[in-house]
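Students often ask why inverse folding is considered easier than folding. One informal answer: many sequences map to the same fold, so there is more than one right answer. In these notes we will look at a single instance of the problem. The structure comes first.
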């Protein structure tokens, strides 16, 4: 029988509600042998008059924190046997 799922996208934001999706995605990924992408979208800084280096620095910090959070999810023991990657996008 052909697997129904080849790639599962799990959007996360650090909240308990979002992390509840991990419990649903895990058995799906295991049973299908699907790869998994954990995604976090970082809000762009658009309401700032000054477009200097502070804005760039803040955005870089947000992206770094998001990547660390997602990578910690990929390293959880229950995900170890699966292909899981962390992706951070601005927007």
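Output (designed amino acids):
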């Amino acid at each position: 029988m052909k697997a129904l799922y080849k790639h599962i996208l799990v959007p996360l934001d650090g909240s308990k509600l979002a992390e509840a999706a991990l419990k649903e995605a895990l058995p799906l990924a295991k049973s299908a042998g699907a790869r998994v992408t954990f995604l976090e979208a970082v809000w762009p800084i658009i309401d700032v008059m000054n477009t200097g280096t502070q804005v760039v620095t803040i955005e870089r910090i947000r992206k770094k924190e998001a990547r660390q959070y997602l990578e910690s999810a990929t390293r959880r023991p229950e995900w170890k046997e699966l292909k899981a990657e962390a992706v951070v996008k601005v927007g």
